[in-house]
Amino acid sequence: MAATSQQRTLGVSKRRNWIIAIAALFAIVVILAGIKAGQIATMIKAGKSFVMPPEAVTSAKVEATEWQGARSAIGTLVAVRSVSLASEVAGLVREIGFDSGSFVRKDQVLVKMDTSTEEAQLASARADAELARATLARARALRESKTNSPADLDAAEAKGKQAAASVGLLQATIAKKTIRAPFDGRISIRQVELGQVLASGTPVASLQSVHPIYAEFSMPQQALSELDLGMKAQLRTDVFPQSNWEGTLTTINSEVDVATRNVRLRATFPNPDGRLRSGMFANVDVLSPEKRPVLVIPSTAILYAPYGDSVFAIEEKKDPSGNSGLIAHQKFVRLGERRGDLVAVASGLTAGVTALVGAGAFLVRRGVCAETNRLNAKIAASADAITCFGLEADILTS
User: Fold this and answer.
1) Which H/E stretch holds residue 91?
2) pLDDT per position as a tens digit, 108-119
3) CA-based diameter of the chain, in Å?
4) What is the band of 250 on the pLDDT scale with cuts at 50, 70, 90?
5) Residue 246 is inside which H or E element, if any?
6) Whether residue 237 sits in one domain with residue 219
């Protein structure tokens, strides 16, 4: 009996402990849920009262100017004269008269090969030529006195010509073993060394003229009606972004490429300082003699989108309480030619009266401006910058 009573007491104690543990756990869950609900309520309240910070953007005026009509193309610079120097005959290199990448003058000795054998043969040939001339002179004197036959005179004349030809052949061979610059220009990295045995046709270096220089490019066949020889051309290259070169259109190819329907063109540009080099990439503009009026804006003011390009035009407007401020209107525009950082506007804007949002225009959004405007935030502006605090969504789509 005592054991049974003790077992009942232990069972009741265990149930009581479980009930206390479950109650404590439930209390903890309720407390945590209350804390989280308070945090969410605080966040909701903060979100309702949140004001988007102002976005600073710069502005630029729509300017009316005149642009000269131009056709743009991508071209490659080509030397007016370019040649790969090579040896005509085999020989051993004895002298090198240029440095890689240097400027050389016409007829400057570039490479001189060993000519000792040919010079010895030339001395012998000259001696034979002297003997042949003397023999010919005696034969002519004897013929005048009718001492020898006409055949003897003919043989003497033939031997004289053969001796002179041998001398000329050796002189030509010696001359071919001296490589000279055919014109003024800049020479490339040399491909030979002292003591090297050159075979016939072995390249030595390439030589390109420097001033002037050609720019070769292509344009569609539709441009042929607007192109004439002598038109002005401008050249720009990424190597020297701050420099422009002025030249003239000198060549219009006589045929149109049947595959691309493009015509090859060539413009000539002065290059006295040698900064432009053959093979460089370049942008070429062929300018028309006529000028046309255009409206231009910075390219950073354009908001490009699949449904149309637009800009934010800044205008002054009063709110219902009579306070004036600056309002941005999104205007869709049709763009024209682009030159550098400027873009021509074909329609959608007027000159002078409209200020364009420049750098930072992508920060102006409907949601930001509509939310802050409901809090009656003002629009602040200075002479060179505009800070947008808020605009109504329906105003932005005018």
Assistant:
1) strand 91-96
2) 888 988 888 888
3) 180
4) very high
5) strand 240-256
6) yes
Residue 272 and residue 300 in one domain? no
Q: Which residues contact 105 (CB under 8 A, 6 or more apart)?
A: 181, 184
Please list, in sequence order, all residues whose beta carbon lies within 8 angstroms of the beta carbon of residue 334, skipping any fewer than 6 positions away: 309, 345, 346, 347, 348
Q: How many whole angstroms separate alpha carbon 282 and alpha carbon 284? A: 6
More confident position, 322 or 52: 322
- Alpha-carbon distance of 13 to 11, in angstroms, equals 5
Cα separation, 207 vs 159, in Å, equals 43
Quote the domain boundaries for residue 134. 84-208
Can you tell me the distance from the alpha carbon of 259 to that of 35, in angstroms, rounded to the nearest whole number? 75
> What is the average pLDDT value for the chain, to the nearest integer?
78
As a whole number of angstroms, the distance between CA 75 and CA 62 comes to 32
How many Å apart are CA 116 and CA 375, to the nearest integer? Answer: 100
Question: Per DSSP, what are the bridge partners of residue 283?
Answer: 74, 236
**CATH classification of the domain holding 222:** 2.40.30.170
Give the total number of structural domains in the chain: 4
pLDDT exceeds cutoff 80 at 17: no
The full DSSP string for 181-209 is: -SSSEEE------TTPEEPTT-EEEEEE-
pLDDT at 270: 93
| Total residue count of the chain as it appears in this document | 398
Query: What CATH number is attached to the domain comprising 62?
Result: 2.40.420.20
The residues facing 75 across adjacent strands are 217, 282
- Based on the fold, state whether residues 41 and 61 are members of the same structural domain: no
**Of 291, 313, 340, which one is at a domain's C-terminal end?**
291
